[in-house]
Prior knowledge:
This protein has one domain (2-90): RNA polymerase, RBP11-like subunit (Gyrase A, domain 2), CATH 3.30.1360.10. By secondary structure, it is an alpha+beta fold. It has helices at residues 22-33, 64-90; strands at residues 2-9, 12-18, 38-44, 53-58. It starts with a strand and ends with a helix.
Amino acid sequence: MDIKILEREGDKVRMVLKGQGHTFMNALTEEILSDPAVDVAKYVIKYQFSDPELLVTTKEGKDPLLVVREACSRITAQCDDLIEQVRAKTTV
Length: 92
C-alpha cells in the first residue's frame, strides 16, 4: 500500500491511501476510533475512482500516525486470529 502524507501537525494528520476502497477504510476508521485518545477519524473518497483521504486528530498529545499504526496492527492481529480459527476448523 502506498501512502502520501498531505498534512501533519501535532495532533492532526491527513493522508491518502492509494488503491484502497470503502471496505478497508471503514474497517480502519472504526479501529482508529476505538482508541480513546482519538478525537476524529474519518475518510472521504471524492470521486468514484479516486484514492481515499484519511483524517485523524487526537487528544492528550498522542501522535496520530502512531494511532494509525496501532490500529493497523490490531486489524492484522484480528485477521491472523481468524485465519488460525479457519485452519483449525478445516484440518479436522
